[in-house]
Amino acid sequence: MPADHAHAHSGCFDLAAQEAVYRAIFTRRDVRSHFLPDPLDDDMLARLLMAAHHAPSVGFMQPWNFIVIRDQRRRQQVRDLFLAARQQELPHIAEERQALYRKLKLEGICESPLNLVVTCDRSRSRNSPLGRWHNPEMDLYSTVCAVQNFWLAARAEGVGVGWVSIIDREALKRMLAIPEHVVPVAYLCVGRVSEFAARPDLERHGWGSRLPLADLIMSEEYCGDGETELKDAAARLAGTPVGA
Ligand SMILES: Cc1cc2nc3c(=O)[nH]c(=O)nc-3n(C[C@H](O)[C@H](O)[C@H](O)COP(=O)(O)O)c2cc1C
């Protein structure tokens, strides 16, 4: 049986498609610099939003909305929120890391051609909290899934995305007229870029490095020993299949 035929039967993608999925995952970057000013065309943005909209969601709740922000003055105001929040965060950073923290570029709010706020409407389950009775936060997790879909689709289309979380949420809600029951989950800077860095910015600047996957695997219970073969297999991967 030809390989592609076998793939079709088992439900898995052909090898080129598998490679493409892993490539999007391993070469996705959080982008703060390298944004180009070129506007994104609406057909492309619609495709990315459609990818987001196809994320899994608890009880098929689809709690997300997408606020597109293009206005430069508004973005300047959001950037002011970022600058204030960064000042407030700074004293809570370990003293020996504060100088590095100050140097890091942690947003591209005004340089990117557009910003996108992905929100979670916590009331959208209409008094039927399927999957949320014990774990009401699942709607927020669902919204994060939508963000990740957007991020990966954007990478495949050569569009950079940077997540800015250093913002006072309540101030942002007031600025964007977001109602009480809606949570702004992600503030994203979006646009074409001149390059995607090979490694995370925070790694390149010595803030942190990727933890070895094998060290994160536990067996049967938290901190449970075991799964030696799985850990060996993870260690053998030593990076990513597509060399990101
Ligand atoms: C929930 C969340 C919030 C983040 N907030 C910020 C942020 O405020 N500023 C920033 O520069 N990067 C932010 N990031 C990006 C991370 O720093 C980045 O994902 C991490 O360093 C790994 O780099 P990579 O995404 O390029 O692989 C955020 C990422 C996530 C998932």
UniProtKB/TrEMBL annotation:
- What keywords are assigned to this protein? Flavoprotein, FMN, Oxidoreductase
Organism field: Aminobacter aganoensis
User: What EC number(s) does the entry state?
Assistant: 1.13.11.79
Which major enzyme category is it? oxidoreductase
Q: What GO molecular function annotations does the UniProt record carry, in alphabetical order?
A: 5,6-dimethylbenzimidazole synthase activity
> A Pfam family matched by this chain, by name?
Nitroreductase
Q: What is this protein called?
A: 5,6-dimethylbenzimidazole synthase
Highest taxon, organism lineage: Bacteria
Q: Which InterPro entries does the protein's record reference?
A: BluB (IPR012825), Nitroreductase (IPR029479), Nitroreductase-like (IPR000415), Nitroreductase/BluB (IPR050627)
**Which positions fall inside the Nitroreductase domain?**
26-192
Q: Is Oxidoreductase among the key words of this record?
A: yes
What PANTHER family has UniProt attached to this entry?
IODOTYROSINE DEIODINASE 1, NADPH NITROREDUCTASE
